[in-house]
Amino acid sequence: MLARLHWDTEMDEQKLLNEWAQGFGPAADAVKAYFRFWEKVFKDAYVRPDIETIGKLAEPYGGRISNRKAVAVLISPYDFDKGRELLAQARAAAEPTGDAELLEKIRILELGLRHGELTVEAAKFSFGTRFFDEDIFFGEQWPVLKEILEVRDALLERRAHNAFWLLYWEMRTHDYYGTRAMYDFFRTGYKPVMTPADKRWVFYVDPEDKGEAEEWYKKPLDVPKGWQRADDSFNRFQHLFFQTWDNLKDVIAWKRETKTKLAVNGWFQATFSVPKRVIKPEQVLFIPQIVGESAKIWVNDTLVREVTSADVEADKPIMLTLAEAGIEPDKEFRLTIKVHSPKKEGGILGPAYIAEPDAA
Questions:
Q1: Domain termination residue (choose one: 188, 216, 242)
Q2: Is residue 198 exposed (0-12), middle (13-18) or buried (19+ Cβ within 10 Å)?
Q3: I want to staple 285 with a disulfide (CB 3.0 to 4.6 A). Which of 96, 117, 190, 325 is the partner?
Q4: Pick from 80, 259, 286: nearest CA to 185
């Protein structure tokens, strides 16, 4: 329908909906009622007199992210119950036909409804929370995020949605639904416990490979002001771990100014602590994916892991027990990761987490 309207903006929307719904045979009326219902829900939601106030509460920085987080308040459980009722009517009309293709079409709508419901639940966790400014504790959020990705996987198998588009925009604009975590942990057998606020991280390039000789890992990295994420409003909406480092605004500007093609070495550093209330013996320091040739990981002054090219090529998370990493509850530590990538742009895809086995 959207493609047809893009082609001819003067088309009668209701006539087009009627035409499309005929593909549902005896369930057509229920399916039309379902879409008319959601059209009214969203139209009513976004003309509320308090919509601007809700948007500011949802995301103080405003923009498109505030609209997406605002669904936590704008869409109610009643709306989803009514949606299920309408789809149940559609299924009841279709089942007597025994038409497998028709029933699959309705299953796609049911999966879409569940996806929307889970998205609203995920938005509740991020409503009013500045993921850039605050450490993230997943707790009850993880089962929701995990099911979102499972539902998306089911829709993707049916070629019923654009998974890349959803993941791309959600991750790039600071995980307003926690997409980064669900992508980093899906099918790993682990679940996230916490990750430090993005503003805690520092990143800097080291094309001359002088960082180790100067022992950068023994002290907080002193980076130029333009590289300080907490001071740059643009960086608040550019996830440090979204892509390799050549996509970062700071690196693009640096390469242009210095006429350098490759950074060769990149240093990532964050200082944080793990509260005693969440820490468990079976937890690990979890780094989802390193892109490059090799890497080294320090906790405070201690080198705790050398990541080889074979480790990188295995394309698996790097994990260290808390004992191996020297991480103690309520005790602040400095995590430093140097990625060596002399032939292409490198980086860390996904931040560092404290994680534990996912028994579910």
A1: 188
A2: buried
A3: 325
A4: 286
